[in-house]
Design a protein that fits this description.
Elements lengths: L20 E4 L15 H6 L1 H7 L3 E4 L27 H13 L3 E6 L9 H8 L11 E3 L9 E2 L7 E3 L6 E4 L14 H16 L4 E4 L23 E2 H7 L3 H11 L7 E4 L9 H5 L7 E3 L2 H4 L15 H15 L4 E4 L9 H5 L7 H12 L4 E5 L20 H12 L4 H11 L2 H4 L30 H5 L5 H13 L4 H6 L1 E4 L7 E7 L3 E7 L5 E4 L6 E5 L5 E3 L2 E4 L4 E5 L1
Parallel strand pairs: 1-2, 1-13, 2-3, 3-8, 5-9, 8-10, 10-11, 11-12, 12-13
Antiparallel strand pairs: 4-7, 6-7, 14-15, 15-16, 16-21, 17-20, 18-21, 19-20
Helix pairs in contact: 12-17, 13-14
The structure holds beta-D-glucopyranose.
Length: 565
Amino acid sequence: MEIQAKEDMDMQKKWWHDKIVYQIYPKSFFDSNGDGIGDIQGIIQKLDYIKSLGADILWICPMYPSPMADQGYDISDYYNIDPTFGTLDDMDRLISESKKRGMYVIMDLVVNHCSDEHEWFRKACQEPGGKYGKYFYIEDIKDGKLPCNWRGIFGGSVWSELPGHPGKVYLHTFHKKQPDLNWENPKVRQEVYKIINFWLDHGLSGFRVDAIVNIKKKLPFKDYAPDRPDGLCDLTVMKKEVEGIGEFLGEMSDLIFKKRDIFVLGEVSNEREGSLPDYIGENGYFSTMFDFAPNVFGKSEKGWFDYMPVTPDNYRDCCFTSQERAKNIGFFANFIDNHDEPRGINRYLPDHDLSLESKKMLATVYFFLKGIPIIYQGQEIGMENRGVVPLEKIDDFSAIDQYYVSIDAGFSPEEALEIISKYNRDNVRTPMQWNAEPYAGFSSRAPWLEVNPNYPEINVSSELNTPGSVLSYYKKMILLRKNLDYANTFTYGEFIPFHPDIHNLMAYYRSGDKDILIIANYQKDARTIMLSREPKQILLNNYDKFSLSNLELNLLGYQALVLEL
Ligand code: BGC
């Protein structure tokens, strides 16, 4: 196959195009004050570690004051920092210390909903017909019937009784402690813009915009066909039908985002066919958005018990389809782990095939795709799922909800625990494994969530100066992506699939001022693949061995190579 494509030179260059994002889940990153919970000073102490890894942009999950019903995604004050994490001064220091090291900080912007303990909601409860009542969706129960039968993302109806007002209900897409803000109200949008500017003035370089596709509701509320015995209907049905989200996003982008040279990462899924340019095109609402294609693959509206495993071919096809979709439009943000999902290595590698090599292979195939690579804390050392834990030790309430969904579907308690262990959000929220000391060196006392018992083997300290470790491999990948000879090609070079028809092979070219082939044998058996051109140089190899003769490339199980052609 001849490579004809060249880099996308027409694209207007932006400062964040060649950056690597490192996601921090603050509660579990590093505890500096011995209370079992990570904090801002802890992040500051680890900045040199992140810098040595080579990451540029730190995305820190919410640290605003919060009752923590949804681990900080329920905000009770948008203008401060929760005392568990530190103070606003600590945050200012974190931003300035990051800047000193040439790094940028972004935080979550969580404005689909706030907390029921936010003063806006308190005032709405005092006077539902008043100014703050209009900040939310508050409706009357008519003839004993809720306004509609939508199911919330964490299970149950989206409607709960408005405290102090039997007969009235408020809408929450997520947990009942997360009332949805009414974006139809221009005053709410003004509040959001004020919040954004406040944090930009504090030196943030942008935001990860949480759950933003939920801000537009189909009004007036109406029922859809129930899809489970609970008589409720998945929210996605309403989201497919509703029009007009672009008006809200366009306004926010035009009035705020575009006026400041910031990096905005949208959490967008199920966007309308053909609307990708509106989101991440040259003039899009956001800088980039997550590529959720591999992540949502095989998921089912029935519940976690009905999810299908993702095979190597499924994973490749999802990534390749997204690369094609974004071509000539913009950049996706590519990831295998985040705080809402199991570890990518546990999801995208077949069970029983977890090894140093397979972990490095998966890292290689996603990291060199066109787009912005995101690394979630611990991914760089090969941290794994926590696995099965007793129900009473589970913190993630979506997992607890899914336990009962599985029981209702006829599974035994043991089977239900096994099912939820695969997708439980606690899997990735266990404390960062810094060393082999008690509590993995994360804290001096028992942390808020138990450490994964494999910390004596998998930890930063043991991997730091070990040439064959996953950590050393991530550093090599980052160095390569940033190497001035290749950076342009990795950033702007075109993506061209290489034999997407070959079972368990994931390979593609990046073609710009260099021609590069990323090739991975996505299986444990060795195999031979015919190349069409002699490589000039091996840029990266997850094994010490390399074997090529007459264009026949011999690949070991889970071998991954980056070759300059
Ligand atoms: C966040 C979740 C959170 C939800 C509600 C998501 O998209 O990533 O962690 O539970 O939004 O805010």
